[in-house]
Amino acid sequence: MIPTPQGKPAAVNPVALYEPEFAADPHAAYEQMRQAYGPLVPVELSPNIPATLVIGYYQARRILNDPLRFPADPRVWQQHIPQSCPVRPMMEWRPNALRSSGPEHTRYRDANTASLAAVNQHELHTLVEKIASSTISDFRAVGSVDLLTQYAWPISFRVLSALMGCPDEIGARIAAAMAKIFEATDAAHGNQILGQAIAELIALRQQYPDDDITSRLLAHPAHLNAEEMAHQLVTLYGAGIEPLTNLISNTSLKILTDEEFSASLHAGHSTVRDALDTVLYTDPPLANYCISYPPHPVDIDGVLLLAHQPVVISMAACNNDPELTRGVLKDALTGNRAHLAWSIGPHTCPARSHAYLIAETAITYLLDALPEIDLAIPAAELTWRPGPFHRALEALPVVFPATR
């Protein structure tokens, strides 16, 4: 069965979110979905992996705030999903806050929140600036760079590794594995690499504890066992490298291509934080996620959501829902944080302030160091990586006057 609005025939072909055509222009696809289905859309996350995509803002808020009818536990669903399924590593059960409900969710979330809250924000700001300076020094004499792979990614990777107490060699394997999982390409192999690298990090910090997130998780009163520890770190890395890299690069693209906003930024009327919020509102880096698996059929506004079939929240589409944005001026999005990019409800991102600080500091430092930076190719020639979950560029090539 495919969920459909009342009075409309069942769709023969659900919308494929994994195709390059969807990645090239997702907002056009969301508009077509809205016209055809309304706020709840039958989709495929991968071939023969059906789901319901929620593109209505108010429907999404109801679902995200209803963990009883929409729990995040996928164990029944994944019984029928082969290990080779490319999206399974992003969706399968793990003993962590993201994939748990009730007391276990509280236990895992408390441990994560406490470990993250102990990060000193002033020290984090200094760390990001230090890494940004070092990263820019590697290419500033060249006059050109791919901001995605040579700036946004190294900063995200190196900052997170420092916060986690993770040596570069282990962190590099973790980052490569997470990229495979997010892109749903060879995800099973990525999952295997990830597990091995995480186990090495845990063993290192058990033997040599320090003032870092991994050590604090190990010492937390939740008494996480080895498996639970591994999956807390997987979640933190998953949220800390790919989405943060794409937030930095997508916001940089916004500043480089929106002349009106760029002028306002240089005149001091807008800030980098405003640019971040605009991107999080209009084109968030984690576009479709916050997955739940209703244990029983649920009727939402006349649409029957099937038991144990994934319900995916489209933060990108919900933020741009005409029911929400109708009558809102473009300028009103600046500084507007009513978006769902960090989720809401019991699974709200606990590292929101850290991500804001890292991205804002990295972009501000870049603009100060290279004030004459510009795109190396027309914006229309940039390509987006296919995948049902992220909004991620293939590359972001830029040019600037070379300096020593």
Describe the 3D structure.
It is a single chain. The chain is α+β, with helices and mostly antiparallel strands. The longest helix has 21 residues, at 187-207. A hairpin with a 2-residue loop joins β2 and β3 (49-54). Strands 1-2-3-8-5 form a five-stranded mixed beta sheet. A three-stranded antiparallel beta sheet has the order 4-10-9. A two-stranded antiparallel sheet has the order 6-7. The protein is built from 18 helices and ten strands. The chain has a single domain (15-399), classed as Cytochrome P450 (Cytochrome p450, Orthogonal Bundle). The model is unreliable at 1-11 (pLDDT under 50). α9 (168-183) packs antiparallel against α10 and α13 (242-257) crosses α15.
Q: What is the 3D form?
A: globular
- Determine the fraction of residues in helical runs and give it as a percent range: 40-55%
- Helix count? 18
Number of strands: 10
CATH architecture level-2 label? Orthogonal Bundle
What strand line-up does the widest sheet have? 1-2-3-8-5
- For this structure, what is the CATH homologous superfamily? Cytochrome P450
Order of helices and strands: EHHEEHHHHHEHHHHHHHHEEEEHHHEE
Average residue-wise pLDDT: 90
